[in-house]
Design goal:
Elements: E1 2-3, E2 6-9, H1 13-24, E3 30-33, E4 45-46, E5 50-51, H2 63-71, E6 76-78, E7 84-88, E8 96-98, E9 108-110, H3 115-122, E10 130-131, E11 134-142, E12 145-152, E13 158-163, E14 165-168, H4 172-178, E15 180-182, H5 187-194, E16 204-210, H6 214-217, E17 220-226, E18 231-236, E19 244-250, H7 254-260, H8 262-277, E20 286-291, E21 327-329, H9 342-363
Helix pairs in contact: 1-3, 1-9
Length: 368
């Protein structure tokens, strides 16, 4: 049985950032378990540039994330929003062109996509600390130690890891649906975590890549809103001095998307871009549709109904019983300030690790 001080469940931004901070502190006695064959969780980048998950951050509102980006020396740029935007409200009426709007505060994106943030953090963690294809399925207390059971998604082999504490870098609802706790978590806390919606888990996103941002030549920003769909909101997704792109959030619910199927839905998205931006929109070099509701490692059945508001952050720790001071939630939904956002991961991890460090100091014997 492998023994470590800390097990981190999940290698999304929260899990990788926690590993990065522990490494910086000189505390490398940890392991990160990730069920997928990649790091990033809900962060995924298509064609090494275009985000299928979160896209933006706002430095003016999110100073901790902004400082981290500066520390890592990551390249960013302003979201392009120069020019007019399009509205379509009736299938029998051509889209209406109107004044665009500028994001305030300014939204920014990463050169190379948000995956650059995760990979840069991961590069500062010893590679063997991150175990991919490792699905944690149960966490138990046995003789004053925590035993994490995980299964390889490659060969179904089981392994056990002994730890002093566990950091849950997953959405709270996914924790309740995928992990068995022994002894059970307090019922009130379990209910609270299960009622916390996973941000964007019910959503789908479509990206189309072009050689040139042809819409800019006609004074369009690439932004559009639609009551017809399937995409209800579209933006310029181009990278500076690279291939151009448009992306959109699909407004159809998860059940309807599944009924249509990926191929038909992709065709409808292509048709919509032509309807909005003209025949030049037919010259797609590559495109991709990502439906997060079909990702079992992101969405639970309770997440399939669209959520238009962020759930209040639940308690990130167990206040009483056997799990007290042994289990901490560090996923983005545990952030009070930015639940569900990239900045929420940074906030939740820092909050939890500060609490964990304080608890350890309190428990330490008096050196005097």
């Amino acid at each position: 049985m492998k023994r470590v001080k800390t097990v981190i469940v999940g290698a999304g931004l929260s899990g990788i950032y926690a590993g990065y901070l522990l490494t910086k502190k000189g505390d490398d006695d940890f392991i990160i378990l990730e069920a997928r064959d990649r790091i990033g969780g809900r962060i995924e980048t298509f064609n090494n540039s275009f985000d299928l998950g979160p896209t933006w951050f706002w430095p003016e509102m999110q100073p901790a994330l902004s400082r981290l980006i500066d520390t890592l020396d990551l390249e960013t740029f302003d979201q392009y929003d120069t020019g007019n935007m399009l509205f379509e409200i009736d299938p029998h009426i051509p889209p209406r062109r109107t004044n665009g709007y500028h994001s305030s505060p300014q939204s920014k994106r990463f050169i190379g996509g948000v995956s650059q943030l995760v990979s840069t953090l991961a590069n500062q963690i010893t590679p063997d600390k991150i175990l991919l294809n490792s699905l944690a399925n149960s966490i138990a207390i046995d003789d004053c130690q925590i035993i994490v059971s995980c299964e390889s998604t490659n060969n179904q082999q089981h392994s056990l890891i002994s730890a002093e504490q566990v950091l849950l870098a997953l959405p709270p609802r996914l924790v309740i649906d995928t992990l068995k706790f022994s002894p059970a978590l307090p019922q009130e806390l379990s209910n609270q975590w299960h009622q916390t919606g996973t941000w964007m888990a019910s959503h789908a996103k479509y990206v189309a890549i072009y050689d040139q941002p042809f819409w800019r030549e006609s004074g369009l920003s690439g932004s559009a809103q639609s009551r017809i769909g399937p995409m209800v909101e579209i933006h310029d997704a181009s990278m500076p001095e690279e291939k151009a792109a448009l992306f959109g959030f699909i407004g159809l619910d998860a059940k309807t998307r599944k009924t249509l199927g990926k191929d038909q839905l992709t065709d409808l998205c292509r048709d919509q871009l032509v309807r909005l931006f003209g025949d030049d929109a037919k010259q797609i070099k590559a495109d991709f549709l990502k439906d997060w509701s079909q990702e079992a490692l992101t969405a639970t059945p309770a997440d399939l109904n669209p959520s238009h508001a962020h759930s209040p952050a639940p308690s990130f720790m167990v206040h009483q019983g056997d799990w007290k001071d042994r289990l901490l939630g560090i996923g983005s939904e545990w952030s009070n300030q930015f639940p569900g956002y990239l900045a929420g991961s940074i906030d939740a991890v820092e909050k939890s690790l500060i609490r964990s460090s304080t608890d350890q100091k309190r428990k330490a014997p008096d050196a005097g």
